[in-house]
Amino acid sequence: MLNDDEQAVPSLFAQLVPEIAAGVVEVKAIARRPGLRTKLALSSRDARVDPVGGCGVVRGSRIRRVVDLLDGERIDLCRWHDDPATLIRHALQPAAIEAVLLHPAQHRATVVVKEDQVSLALGRRGINRELASRLCGWEIEVIAG
Fold first, then answer.
1. CA 68/CA 77 separation, integer angstroms
2. Whole-structure pTM value
């Protein structure tokens, strides 16, 4: 297992994904709970290159190698977006988001989901919401609406 440093994961991706090593795909943000789950927000400098798809490749072969090196740690990839509401939607995938209400003064976001999506948005023990909050830099509250 690698050390618990958050930078260990982007370093691994840079070794295993040529697009990251070449700087075509960039890791814009990372949030990690070592041994459990990591979320990476990726962007591409080339419109022809899908940053998320490029890191997974055929049936997730690239990401599977990283997961194996991290002893099975789950890795979620999402597309970076400069708009906080869009980034929050991406970070909480696969939950279906109804609305994202931003409260800039408190740097907080209220995310509205259908009742059956609450547990998916929160994740087991709240880890999905926690990592999405750290990844985006906004305190995220999930409510059913």
1. 16
2. 0.88
